[in-house]
Each structure stands twice: as structure tokens, then as C-alpha cells.
Amino acid sequence: MEAGIFYVLVGSVAVAAFARWRGWPAPLLVTVVALAASFLPFVPDLDIDGHVLLSLVLPPLLYSAALDVSFVGFKRSLPQIRRLGIWLVLLTALAVGFVAWWIFPALTLPGALLLGAIVAPPDAVSAAAIGRRLGLPRRIMTVLSGESLINDATSLTLYRVFASLTIAGATVSIWGGIWQFLVAVGVGVAVGLVFGIVLHQLRTRISDPVVIGTFGLLAPFGAYAIAEHLLGSGVLAVVAMGLYVGYNSPRTDYTTRQQEKPLWLSADLLLESFVFAYIGLQFPRVLSDLGSESVGEILLLSGVVLLVVVIVRPLYIYPTSAWANFQDRRRLERWDRGVQSGEFDKRHRKSRRWGNYTADELRSHIVREQMAGLTLTWKDSAVISWAGMRGVVTLAIAVAAADLATLDTEASHAIVVVAFIVTVGTLLIQGLTLPLLIRSLGIARDVDEQEDQIALAAVREKSREAGKAFLAEKRVEWEAKYGEADLGVFDAFTKRMTRVEKDTDEAQKVEDAASRPSFEDLVALSKGWLQVRREILLAERDAGNLDEEVMRELIAAMDAEELALDTRGATRQPGRA
Predict the structure, then answer these.
(1) Among residues 69, 65, 143, which one has the least CA distance to residue 380?
(2) pTM score
(3) Domain for residue 114, yes or no?
(4) Into how many domains does the chain fold?
């Protein structure tokens, strides 16, 4: 068993690596290769408990995804994310459930609704990879990423409700289901925030990146398990923790950030590759266990369910987006009239948040904070509608459902078959054609790039002024500590940091000639200058003036500068000043 798991891990990662090298969709290729390999006599037959697989795979994948999501963008796009991540999942689950029950009555209505909950949540991993490669606008990427975090929680909560309905004689009222959902949300978010706060405190107090990385690997499993034990949503617990830690990540030591990113990218590749390979290996066995008289009926059911999940998404997205845009325009008009008439001013002028703004500034902030990320064009809706590929979550939940004792063998096998065909079908139909759709619509990040350039120019000016103020303050301290004779070292070093002086060799000579200031003093000066610039970036991000993606790129560059400082210190010859 252990050797079989190792061989599957190695083989699936090798296939995924080849797919990434060729620019192909890795999940699809891994599944196809595993499916073909399952017919070979020497390939091991794995049998892993579905709930164990779900508990091992889901927490790290969700946490890794949440770390990379912009919390500011997530908050701004929350109305869109909520519509897709909650109501679309519910609508898809009900539509699939009733259609499946009509076509295949042996599933029973609870079992059919269980199937609907399993195939309802799209996986944005493939869509996000395609979007980044083709330069999708940030507003679309934020919606897709945010949806993938929320819809898993909705799906798993529905899965829990419908699984309880499969128990003979069990009844769950509509209000009971709503209450169960609210408890899952409240408990899950609360547990996640507690874990996030504790983990962030550890990240700020422990400087050993290996220890912090180990805590980071364990935390998603702990948050997920405790939230589930308390009848909360383990998914939301992990998501809340990931959003909190990711938002506060720039406040931690740079070594932690540099270590955790490749760590989680490797974990994502390993886990996703294994799940797709495992399902591919299991599919022939599950198909062979079906009764010969029901194979055709289940294949028909799979095709119809695939059609339903593809069609329901655009049929829901276009009307709801149009209505939301209409409501946003009306809300903006009301705000505009309120600002111009002074009504808004009377209501909110006493607020600490709005008190110092003029009428024009007030309207500008209202538009930016309330409207940004909400309005989507018909082209944006087309891309989001077609980015409905199912993935690792659907497959993992299907395997877990197959182990439910309340389902008969035929129903459990049918669920796995349908989930497999829907996942592979959406990867083939939507995953392979989504790049063509994006190119044909001509959607690009031109507006994002223009706004980023404006924001960068503003933040660089603020950073430059803050840096000058910091260096002026340190110059006074330097003169008091070392005397006027050594100010040449400070001035030469200042020119190097501010890139006014490019003759680094001459600056190095000045530095080496100094007898009193130590190398550690110069490093501390450089790190303090970097920290001032980081604080400016965080302040601009928090104020909504700088996009979080841009901020992270700038901080990554600063992290590289700080790493260069530490590397130079570690390799410096002893005895040099």
C-alpha cells in the first residue's frame, strides 16, 4: 500500500511537470495518463478512505489559495463572490439533483441532491492559471479566486445536509438546513480567525523560517479538524485563516515569506496531482462494479449532468450581473445626489472615516470603495460563465460520498462515475476552449496596468519622501554617535541606497576606509530604510490606493534587497568594517 502510494505520487508529479513544461492543463493530462495506466497489470490498486483523503487534501489546498487572494479585492468583490459562491452553488445543486432523480430514480432524491452538491463547486485553479498566462483583468481574477474559496464551503455544507437526508427516516426541515448553514459559517469563520491570529503572532515573534513553515503546514489541518468537530465549516475556517495570514504577511520577517511561497506551490502540485491520478486509477474499477444493465443509464446521467452544470452557470450569471449593475448605477446616482445636496454630508460628516473629506473627495472615495470590483461587462461575464471547470474538490468529495454507509453500492458508484465524467468533461470542454474565448473577446489588463502605473508613481513619491525623512533623522544620530568626520561614509551610503550615486566602487572605498562605523551599522541603516518603504506600501494598501498584487510585487523586490544584505554579511571577510 505504502509503496503504491509512493509510485503514484512520483508518477503523477512527473506527468504534471511535463504538462507544465508544455503549457498543457496538468489535471487533465494526469487524469488521462492515470486512466490509461489503470489497465496495466503491474499498476497498484489503491484503496484510500474517502473522508481521510478529503481531510488530507482539502485544508492545505484551500489555505494555499487563500494566502494568495487579495483581501482588499476580495472585500470589494464580495457581492459578486457571494452570488457565485453561495447562490449559484445552491441553484446548481438543486438543478442537478432533480434532473438526476428524474433520470436515475435508484439514486433517490436525497442521493441525487447529494450528487448535485458534489458537482456544484467549480475549481478556479485551472481558470486562474489560464487567466494569469493570458493577462485577465484583476477584477475577473479576484472574482474567480474568491468564488473558489467560498463555493467549497457551500458545497460541503450542502453535502453534510443531504448526506443526513440519506439516512432512513431522517428529516431535515428548510429552517433546520438554514440554521445548520449559519452555524457552519459562524463557527468556521470564528475558528479560522483564532487560528489566523495565533499563527500571525507566532510569525512575528519567531525568526526561524523553518519552524514557522512547519507551523504553517500544521495549522490548516488543525483549523479544519476543530471547526468540523464543533459543527462548523472546516473549509471556511481554513479560508478565514489564510486570508488573515496572507493580509498580514508583509508585517512578518522577509525570510518567512521567501520560504513559504515555494513550499506551498510544491504542496499544491503534489496534492492535486495525486488526487487526479488516484481518481483516474479508480475509475475503471468503479465502472466495472456497476451492473451491466445500469451502465448505459449512468453514462446518460453523466452526460445530462455535465450539460446542466455547463448551462446553469451562464443562465444565472448574466441576469444576476445585469441586475447588480443596474442596482449599482442607481446607488451611485443616489450617493451623487446626496453629496451634491449636502444630505450625505449631514449624515456622515461627524464620522471619523469621512470627516476630513471635501464633497469631491467624498464622492471619489464612495465610487472607488463601493463600486470597484462590482460592475462587470458582458465580456467579463462571458469569461466567468465559461470558467466553470470542476476539479480536485469535486473528486475528493465524491470519493468520500462513496464510503457513506447510508448509500447502496449502485448509488455510491454512480456518484463517483458522474463526478469523474463531469470533472473531465468540463476540463476538456471549458478548459481547452477558455483561452480561445479570452483571446477572441480581446480582454486584457490594459486598464489595470495604467492604474498601476499611476499608483506606483504616487507611492514611489511618498516612499522617496519618507526615505529622505528617515535618512535625515539617522544622519543626526550618526553625527552624534560617530562625529562629523565619519559623515562621508553615511552620505556615500545614502547615495547608494537612493540610487543618486551609481559609482558603487568609489562608495565601497569610502566605506572600507571608515574606521569607526561598523558593517552592522550600515546594514541596520539599510534595513531601516527598507522598513520605512514597506510601511508606506502597507499604508497605501490599507487606504485602498495601491492594489495588493502590486504591493506584494514591490515587497518581494525589497525582500530580495534585504536577502542580499544578509547574504553579503554572511560571506563578508572577518575583520572588515
Answers:
(1) 143
(2) 0.80
(3) yes
(4) 2
